[in-house]
Amino acid sequence: MKMKLNLKKITVVLLALALAVPVTACGKKEDNKGNNDKTSTEASAAQTGEMPKTFPEFTGTDLDGNKVDGSVFKEHAATVVNFWFTDCGACVQEMPQLQKLADGWKDQDVALKGLLVERDKNDKAKEILKTKGVNYQNIVPDEGDGIDGMIVNIFAFPTTIVVDRNGNIVGDPIQGSLDTKDKIKALQDRIDDVVAKDKENK
Questions:
Q1: CA-based angle 90:71:170, to the nearest 5?
Q2: Can you give the pLDDT at residue 26?
Q3: What are the phi and psi torsion angles at 50 (to 5°)?
Q4: Which domains does the chain have, with CATH numbers?
Q5: Gap between the Cα atoms of 18 and 27, Å rounded
Q6: Structure confidence at residue 12 as a pLDDT band (50, 70, 90)
Q7: How many Cα atoms are found within 13 Å in the side-chain-facing hemisphere of 112?
Q8: Cα–Cα separations (whole angstroms), residue 98 to 69, 82, 155
Q9: Which end of the chain is more exposed for a tag (fewer CB within 10 A), N or C?
Q10: 3-class DSSP string for the chain
C-alpha cells in the first residue's frame, strides 16, 4: 500500500538536512566567518532519489494567497523552479541573483518560481523576500504524494530545475546556489534549448 507522505515527515527530513548538509551549502553569512572569499557555495550532498521526468500534479497557494496548480507551467515556454526553505542561508543569499536572472528572462518567455518546501513558515518567508527585494512568485504546495515524494528526494538546497510548457523536467537538477558563471551558463543553455523547441512546436 502506498503510504502518504505528510508534513511531519517532511519536517523531520528538513531538520535532518540542516544537520547533515555542510554549513557552506546552507550556512548563513555570519556562520562562515574567516571564509571571506566564499560565504555560500554549492552543496556537496547528492540526491539519493531521482527527480521525476515530469513535475507532479499539485495544488497550492503563493505567498500572496493566490491559488496555484500545475497549469502554471503552461503560461511560459520554460519555468525555472527553485526549491528552498527559510533556514537555508545559501537559499536566501542567492535570491538577489535569482531576481536579476528572472528580470532578464521575461523577454524570453521564461518565468522563475520559488517553491517553499515548508508549509508553516509563510510569514518568515515573506519577510525574507521583502528584505531581499524579491518579487518573483513563490509557491507553497499543498500536501500530496507526488510533490512530497519529490521534495523528500532533494538532499541539497537550494536546488533548481527547468520545466517546459508541458510540465516535463528538462535536464538534471542544479544543486546548490547559482553562484558561478558555469552554473548560470549551464542553466541558461538548458533554458535556451527549451525555448527553441517551444517555438518550433508552435
A1: 55
A2: 59
A3: -100, 145
A4: 59-201 (3.40.30.10)
A5: 9
A6: very low
A7: 24
A8: 22, 9, 20
A9: N
A10: CCCCCCHHHHHHHHHHHHHHCCHHHHCCHHHHCCCCCCCCCCCCCCCCCCCCCECCCCEEEECCCCEEEHHHHHHCCEEEEEEECCCCHHHHHCHHHHHHHHHHHHHHCEEEEEEECCCCCHHHHHHHHHHHCCCCCEEEECCCHHHHHHHHCCCCCCEEEEEECCCEEEEEEEECCCCCHHHHHHHHHHHHHHHHHHHHCC
Identify the residue whose cell numbers are 571571506.
36
Separation CA 176–CA 89 (nearest Å) = 11
**pTM summary value:** 0.78
Q: Do the beta carbons of residue 21 and residue 43 sit within 8 Å?
A: yes
The model's confidence at residue 95, banded by pLDDT at 50, 70 and 90, is very high
Please say whether the beta carbons of 26 and 139 come within 8 A: no
Greater pLDDT, 182 or 24: 182
